[in-house]
Design a protein that fits this description.
Layout lengths: L1 H28 L4 H13 L1 H11 L6 H19 L17 H10 L8 E6 L2 H13 L4 E6 L7 H14 L3 E7 L4 H5 L2 H7 L3 E5 L20 E4 L3 E5 L18 E2 L2 E6 L2 H16 L20 E7 L7 H11 L4 E5 L3 E2 L2 H12 L3 E7 L5 H8 L2 H6 L3 E5 L3 E2 L3 E4 L3 E5 L3 E2 H6 L2 E7 L1 H16 L1 E3 L2 H4 L4 H13 L4
Parallel strand pairs: 2-3, 3-4, 7-14, 10-12, 11-17, 12-13
Antiparallel strand pairs: 1-8, 2-5, 5-6, 6-8, 9-18, 10-15, 13-19, 15-16, 16-18
Helix pairs in contact: 1-2, 2-3, 4-10, 5-11, 6-7, 11-12, 13-18
Length: about 475
């Protein structure tokens, strides 16, 4: 019997070693950033069994066989639809300025989506204005309404939007709603889905979460886009979920969420609608490709160039980060960034510190309190390097700052759904607008300055005086920051 135990022990140790060695070899083979690979290996070596299980569940970009096959089959017709944009009057590459020409060429070559003129943009910076304007547009809809959100949370003005959509469906408007299953789980448990379906609305849950599905598809893939398209003529995108901040996440202790949305009409609304159609077909296998954009000569302006940039699994890797890096590296005077979750990649951290060291004024605006403890500590681990290089860090005290925006030299801006963390830059389904519109960019800059006026600016000397135990906690989460 003793010999049997010895044999079983040897077999167990050998099996354990083979599993660890095999997973390690696979991590190295994937050729991701060094930080991501090291973080996974550290997790596996520190907590071996749990680390291996986590890696198998969420360590690789597994879309699931069915979704992967469907995405591959969809690629050709959608690529063809985007290619038609290059033949429209709104495709005017000669009008793109020095700030956006590299971004435009990158997106054309990698995504097949051009920068288009003939857009009208309006920045909405308060939840009341966003939701009431949206309600007005829903009430005036003529043919179709498409909603796509990460979170829909019942209560307040969000309920008024739900009722307005039911009313629209009852008068013959085709209403389709696509919501992330995890982000909108509270909504799906409420009475609203049944009322909407009874009223003729089609509601689809994206990326459903269940114990069985986790063995066939990466569990933490999330649909993080926020898109509204009405009649293929009016679009919305930005950082705000379909929530009324007065009712949403009140127990988190971070205050009301602060967001912005862009209301857009013109050439890029059908492009946003096409992204919605892609996500809709991925979930339902139903194709609803929109009509291409109309051309309205009277609305054309040289400076209203907008590039729609979708990102996520199945699309060109690292798309949004490449756009961010291009924007930062070509900055001459100033960069102002807002992000609720700031856990930058090595490349992004280097770009920000290098910009500051070459004389560019870099302002980073983040929430004073975060609703994610892990992100809060991981984010703090980068403050010292940023402050020492001259980056200004402003901790917003007026609620939970959820706006995701970048303004460069007051001439170019990025605005959308992307956080500055590895999850948004590498994993989630996101969408961002690259905007070449001086008036709009300056409006966004004014909102950012309002945030700074309601913030505490960090002091490098005071930061260096923080207790040792905080430094240790920060360093611990720093090691895992590439996985957050």
């Amino acid at each position: 019997m003793v010999e049997l135990y010895k044999i079983l022990t040897i077999i167990s140790v050998l099996a354990y070693w083979l599993i660890i060695a095999g997973i390690t070899a696979r991590i190295v083979y994937k050729r991701r950033s060094v930080g991501v690979s090291l973080a996974w290996m550290m997790l596996i070596y520190v907590i071996p069994i749990l680390g291996v299980v986590l890696y198998l569940l969420v360590g690789e970009m597994n879309l699931g066989k069915k979704r992967a096959v469907r995405a591959k089959e969809m690629y050709t017709p959608y690529r063809k639809w985007f290619s038609r944009l290059f033949t429209t009057h709104q495709f005017r590459p000669q009008n793109v300025n020095d700030y956006t020409i590299n971004i435009s060429q990158l997106c054309e070559n990698r995504l097949g989506i051009p920068t288009l003129s003939n857009n009208q943009l309006t920045l909405k910076s308060s939840p009341e204005t966003i939701l009431t304007t949206l309600l007005q547009d829903i009430q005036q809809a003529q043919t179709s309404i498409h909603f796509e959100f990460y979170i829909w949370y019942p209560g307040g003005l969000a309920d008024q939007v739900a009722q307005a959509l039911i009313d629209a469906a009852e008068r013959g408007i085709a209403v389709k709603i696509l919501l992330d299953a995890a982000g909108s789980r509270t909504f799906f448990k409420s009475q609203w889905p049944k009322q909407m379906r009874d009223g003729g609305i089609i509601i689809v849950s994206a990326l459903s979460v269940s114990p069985i599905r986790m063995f066939f598809r990466r569990l933490d893939l999330r649909l993080h886009r926020k898109i509204v398209v009405i009649d293929n003529q009016i679009g919305y995108t930005g950082s705000m979920n379909l929530v009324d901040p007065k009712y949403f996440n009140q127990s988190a202790g971070v205050g009301e969420w602060v967001d912005v949305m862009v209301r857009i009409t013109g050439s890029n609304v059908p492009v946003l609608n096409c992204i919605f159609a892609w996500d809709w077909e991925t979930e339902t296998d139903q194709r609803i490709l929109p009509e291409p954009p109309d051309y309205h000569p009277d609305g054309h302006k040289k400076s209203d160039m907008v590039q729609v940039i979708p990102s996520g699994p199945g699309m060109p890797e690292d798309m949004i980060q490449q756009v961010l890096l291009l924007s930062i590296y070509q900055a001459k005077h100033s960069i102002t960034i807002t992000s609720p979750y700031f856990v930058p990649s090595e490349n992004l951290l280097f770009a920000l510190t290098a910009a500051s060291l070459r004389g560019v004024q870099v302002n980073l605006i983040i929430p004073d309190k975060n609703d994610s403890l892990m992100v809060e500590w991981a984010s703090r681990s980068f403050f010292g390097e940023l402050l020492n290089s001259g980056v200004n860090i402003h901790r917003f005290c007026g609620g939970f700052l959820h706006t995701k925006s970048v303004v460069v030299d007051l001439h170019h801006c990025l605005i959308g759904t992307v956080n500055l963390d590895m999850r948004s830059l590498w994993l989630n389904f996101e969408v961002t607008l690259s905007v070449e519109n001086l008036e709009f960019t300056q409006s966004l800059s004014q909102v950012q300055h309002q945030y700074m006026a309601n913030s505490i600016k960090m002091d490098a000397r005071e930061w260096r005086k923080r207790p040792l135990f905080k430094r240790l906690v920060e360093q611990f989460f720093y090691f895992f920051s590439p996985l957050l």
